[in-house]
Amino acid sequence: DGKIYTVYTENSTAMGVYDIASNTWTTIANPLGQGTGNITAYGGLLYLVAGQSFVSYDPVTGTTKTLASAPAFNDSSQDPTNGGPFNYCTGTGFQEWGAIAGYEGKIYGHQGDGCNGFAVYDIASNTWTELPLMPGYPVLGGTIDPSTGTYYTYGSYDEANFWSYSVATKTWTTRTFPSSVNDGGMAYVSAPGLQGIYAVYGEGSTGFARYNTVAGAYVSVKKSASAKTVGVGQKFTYTLRVKNSGGATATKVTVKDKLPSAVRFAKHSTSAGKCTGKATVTCSLGTLKAGKSATVKITVIARKAGKPKNTATVSTTAFNANLKPSSSVTVKITAKSLKLSVTPHTAGAGTRTCYAFTGTSGGKGVGGAKVSLAGRSATTSGSGSATLCLTLKQGTYHARITKSGYSSATAAIRVTAAPAFTG
């Protein structure tokens, strides 16, 4: 109902409640009255267990109901220190460091804390049934994948076993977890394209992993540019190659590319689907079967100097095993070079002289550029010409021409003590 409930193994009095909408925390009384890490939500109720005490809690009415006692468990776990049974496992029920999870009207749970008991609670009949003992000794953390009816957990302490129990076949399977674990946490996520079991490695580790529980696609995007360096005003093309390298078909594949401010959109094209947008180009590519690819081309015009980084991201409604579905490329944009010429180059001090300036780039006149000299300025015409008439003191002056997208340039003028003679 828009809330997250938390319990603590060492707190028998309080349960934390986080309200997602208001971003606030409150606490309520612990319905179980015991510290535990074993909690799950199912059918609108919360279920908590520790030892043989088992309750349901209705967060709407705030009522707690005591349910059938959990199994005591006749555990066969062996203490690696002395080779005998763990003295705390047999006859003690659920340890505080286990897990429970709901599926199809039942609550499944493992004993935890290095004990290998496993059981199921039938909500309708209010009865517990012990199931086949686990093949190892799990720790805190477990969940069910409802799409496959499989219970998952891991352990033992400081080991890397990853166990799954099939509700349909009533059998356990052992795999290898990416790293050794201690008391941690595990959850199933059903978001399209992100389905799987997510797990933290637990105490003493910052590790985090996802186990793909469905056949997945592997959709990636590789971005490139038609040039590494371009000048302001030049066109170039970003190419986005989207490929599905996975074993499953990728559905509703979409690639997005937010263009940097240093470039201006010109046009786009795609080998599949349709692209829309300018500042952000969004291409709906449709379905990509395994091994298939699509290519998007986005032509832009460099508008200001810099090294803009451009990143494209791809998504699909299918499960995507690619955890980094994005790609970036950087293109260096250089300013156009300006040249400034002036006539005359010399003048006499105290004599009013009109200086004719010409700004060019690549041999062509540049209009709209600003020419500055001794605190005065003028704007070049379409042919790149500008004139400034000034009376200057003796010395050497440097006129400067500037324009956005161009590098600046200077031209020297020498003012002598006596009038300069030409001819």
Estimate the helix proportion, in percent.
under 10%
Give the strand order of the largest sheet, numbering strands 1, 2, ... along the chain: 24-25-22-27-28
Q: Give the overall shape, derived from the CA principal axes.
A: elongated
User: Kindly, what is the distance between the CA atoms of the first and last residues, rounded to a whole number of angstroms?
Assistant: 94 Å
Largest sheet: 5 strands, antiparallel
Q: Specify the number of helices.
A: 0
Mean pLDDT: 92
Query: Which secondary-structure class do the elements indicate?
Result: mainly beta
Strand content: over 45%
- Residue ranges: pLDDT <50 for 5 or more in a row? none
Count of beta strands: 38
Radius of gyration: 36 Å
Any chance you could write out the topology, listing elements then pairs?
Elements: E1 3-6, E2 14-19, E3 24-29, E4 39-42, E5 45-50, E6 53-58, E7 63-66, E8 99-103, E9 106-112, E10 115-122, E11 127-130, E12 138-145, E13 150-155, E14 159-166, E15 171-181, E16 185-189, E17 196-200, E18 208-211, E19 219-225, E20 229-231, E21 235-244, E22 250-258, E23 263-270, E24 274-276, E25 280-288, E26 293-302, E27 309-315, E28 326-330, E29 332-334, E30 339-343, E31 346-348, E32 352-361, E33 364-365, E34 370-373, E35 376-379, E36 385-391, E37 395-402, E38 409-416
Parallel strand pairs: 20-29, 31-38
Antiparallel strand pairs: 1-2, 2-3, 4-5, 5-6, 6-7, 8-9, 9-10, 10-11, 12-13, 13-14, 14-15, 16-17, 17-18, 19-21, 21-26, 22-25, 22-27, 23-26, 24-25, 27-28, 30-32, 32-33, 32-36, 34-35, 34-37, 37-38
